[in-house]
Every structure is written in C-alpha cells, then in structure tokens.
Amino acid sequence: MLLYLTLTLFVSWLIVFCGMRYKQNAKIKRWYNTWDITNHLATYQELFQDINGFTLSCKSRSTHDAFEYTYGEIDFIPFIALLALTKPHVNTVFYDLGSGVGKAAVACAMVFNVAKSCGIELFSDLHNAAILQQQRLQALPNYKDKAQVLHFIHDNILNRDISDATLVFINATAFFGETWSLMTQHMSQLKRGTIVITSSKKLSSPLFVVTQTTTVNMSWGAVLVYIQQRK
Fewer CB atoms < 10 Å away: N or C end of the chain? Predict the structure, then answer.
C-alpha cells in the first residue's frame, strides 16, 4: 500500500513537472518565433565570425590603457531578451555607450523596429570594425533597411550629446570612482522617461529609479543588470 502511494505521488509530481517544462518550452518557442531569433542569430554570427573584438581592444589599448577600457561583449540571445523587457518600438532611440565592434547596436537594429540604434566608441580600431559590420548588414537584402538606422560615433562617451536617447545601455562593470560619477552626471541630460540599462551597478543618481533587476549572460559570465528610468 505504501509503495502504491509513493508511486502515485511520484507519477503525479512527474506529470506536473513535465507539464511545467512543456509550458516553459512552448513559451520560449513562441518568443523565438515572435522575434525570428533563429534567423537573426545565424546572420549575426556570420557577420561577426571573423571579427575579434578582444584582439582589437588589446591592440588599441597597448599605448593608452585604463581599467575602464576593459573589453567585454554581449551574448546575442540574452541581450535581446534584456532589451525586450523595455519594449523597444518605432520611436526608440537606442545608444550603446562603449560600443566596441558594434554588437549591441547591430543586435538591436536587426531584431527590433527602432528609429535609431547608435554606438559610441573611443578606440578607432573597434569603431572601424563596427562600421564594417554596418556595411556588411546593408549588403544583405533582408537587412538593408535595418542597417539604415545604425549610427556609429567615434568619440569619448562623455563628449557626446545623447539627449535624443530613449534607451541607453552601459556595460558598467569596469567603471568605478570618478569615471562612474562622471558617467552618472552625463546621464542627467536624458529626458524624462528614458530607460538606462547598466551592468553590475546602478546609476548613483536620485534622478533615476530602478524598475527591474535581472541577471544576464555576458562574455565574461552572468552579471546583475539594472533597468532604470529617468524621473
């Protein structure tokens, strides 16, 4: 009798567990289909297959280096899932501050129907690689229009006016002290309602309120990410 009850409970648990997994897998499948993730990912990987941002970054920093220049990259699917939480739309103006070879800006432009997808990068080798990816994307018939919304800027982040932004991504893991304080101050130019996503730390400003936190995989591992909105 005890064995029968044990088996019955186990089977019941197994049915519930499998049902939950089925619903979860179905939800993920719908998400993939909604954003055409499989096709976008294949194109994205092809675009960047011969571009090594880490090597380019090391070369660029050989004569001009600082801890805040530590290079890191997004992982396509987790990053798209992160951006999806902010509901990008046709009026969204996205900025990636410290855009490297352009992966975040390109990913945003490929998947979402946004007005602009911009990247600002200090080092010329990385900036030039991003421009190359824009040209490659524009050569693909299915992505010609997507490439038009890409804008890559070669400059210091703190020198640029980004007041037109509605969505900003800052890979802030390597930003500390005065650098992070200056970055936070720079964000004060953003208009009310603008969303700022930062990795590892939130903006140290009362002008922003954290609306959500989540964990996202990046090139160096899982990192806590803050989604904040300008008051």
Answer: N
